[in-house]
């Protein structure tokens, strides 16, 4: 199972597919760490 883990708050998400995990992480950064997202 692909998993994504946020380096900034430690939140983890297990997804059924790698693209879904990447999308979750992207959305998570944008919503929860907008400054990090801007610099990514
Ligand atoms: Zn986070």
Question: Helix and strand layout, with pairings?
Answer:
Elements: E1 3-5, E2 12-14, H1 18-32, H2 34-39
Antiparallel strand pairs: 1-2
The structure holds zinc ion.
Description:
This protein is α+β, with helices and mostly antiparallel strands and 40 residues long. It has a domain at 15-40. Helices cover 52% and strands 15% of the residues. It has helices at residues 18-32, 34-39, and strands at 3-5, 12-14. The protein has a two-stranded antiparallel ribbon. A hairpin with a 6-residue loop joins strand 1 (3-5) and strand 2 (12-14). The longest helix has 15 residues, at 18-32. It is globular and about 30 Å long. The model has no long low-confidence stretch (mean pLDDT 93). The structure holds zinc ion. Zinc ion binds at residues 6, 8-9, 11, 28, 32-33. Zinc ion (ZN) binds at residues 6, 8-9, 11, 28, 32-33.
The total beta strand count reads 2
Largest sheet: 2 strands, antiparallel
Q: Can you list the strand order of the major beta sheet?
A: 1-2
Helix content: 40-55%
Protein name: C2H2-type domain-containing protein
Descriptive terms for the model:
40 residues; 2 helices; binds zinc ion; C2H2-type domain-containing protein
In short:
By secondary structure, the chain is α+β, with helices and mostly antiparallel strands. It has helices at residues 18-32, 34-39; strands at residues 3-5, 12-14. Zinc ion binds at residues 6, 8-9, 11, 28, 32-33.
